[in-house]
Write a structure and sequence with these properties.
The protein is mainly α and 270 residues long. Helices cover 50% and strands 4% of the residues. It is built from 9 helices and 4 strands. Strand 3 and strand 4 (257-259) form a beta hairpin. The chain is elongated, with a radius of gyration of 23 Å. Keywords: Membrane, Transmembrane, Transmembrane helix.
């Protein structure tokens, strides 16, 4: 890190998300809302701070992992802590989180941003990001089918891996066995086996598709940031707040970084 980056990183490290006087602290809330242990939640918070640092120094684009994104989402709801204490008083810039527009081109771009995030992380912190928090690209952009569930009303049972594929295979094998036992000719069983093979291959390809579950909104599970530093709109702070699952395209006037598009963002330092 450069001396300026070291100073910035120290300021971010010193930023406290857990209020000492709070009975229900930020880390405890993050753990509860995601079903994590408190230890894991605190590790995610540490990685979230690293992501914020990368946002400030990146010249291209950075994308958070999903756990880091969840910490970011929650922090955005603590509006005074996020916008005033972190962005204004600590970073001297705003980092926005905006809605995605989707599309294959932007999904490809932000997949590249995620790769760049890993490389920049390693370059600046001298180690690989922890794999249990910073997932690989395929997992990051395919494992996104999440919903808010009241666990006081519903039981949650983990699905077996490739459950649709396995269930389809078992059902087809049973059907083929039944046809073979009931048929005097081998034509029908062979035909059934051929159909079964086609169906199994189709289901396997569907299960393996990294875009499965995204529908027409590629990159829906991604998020990004954009910064507004000194020289933006006169005082360095814009009036709009970002949404979620957003991205950044560098541009704007006076060296500002504007947010738009899908997925994740590049946050240029000013």
């Amino acid at each position: 890190m450069t001396p300026i980056e070291q100073t910035l990183w120290q300021k971010i490290q010193d930023f406290e998300l857990d209020e000492p006087v709070a009975d229900f602290k930020f880390s405890a809330r993050l753990a509860r809302e995601n079903g994590w242990t408190l230890t894991y939640a605190k590790r995610v918070i540490s990685e979230y701070k690293k992501f914020i640092f990368l946002c400030c120094i990146s010249e291209q684009g950075v994308t958070p992992s999903d756990p880091v994104d969840q910490a970011w989402h929650l922090h955005l709801t603590f509006t005074r802590s996020y916008w005033t204490e972190l962005c204004k008083n600590t970073l001297n810039r705003e980092i926005h989180h905006n809605p995605t527009k989707g599309g294959k081109q932007e999904a490809t771009k932000f997949n590249g941003f995620y790769t760049s995030s890993h490389k920049l992380y390693t370059q600046k912190f001298g180690e690989q990001p922890p794999a249990d928090i910073w997932q690989d690209n395929h997992t990051r952009f395919s494992d996104i089918n999440f919903q808010r569930v009241n666990i006081g009303r519903y039981w949650l049972i983990k699905k077996p891996r490739l459950s649709v594929y396995g269930l389809t295979l078992v059902m087809l094998l049973i059907a083929c066995t039944t046809f073979i036992q009931a048929s005097e000719s081998m034509v029908a069983p062979l035909l059934m086996l051929g159909i079964a093979a086609i169906v199994v291959i189709g289901v396997y390809r569907w299960e393996s598709n990294p875009n499965r579950g995204k529908g027409n909104n590629d990159g829906n599970g991604n998020s990004g940031c954009g910064t507004a530093g000194s020289g933006c709109n006169g005082d360095g702070f814009t009036s709009h707040h970002g949404g979620h699952h957003g991205g950044h395209d560098s541009g704007g006037d006076s060296g500002c970084s504007g947010c738009s598009g899908s997925g994740c963002s590049g946050c240029g330092s000013d």
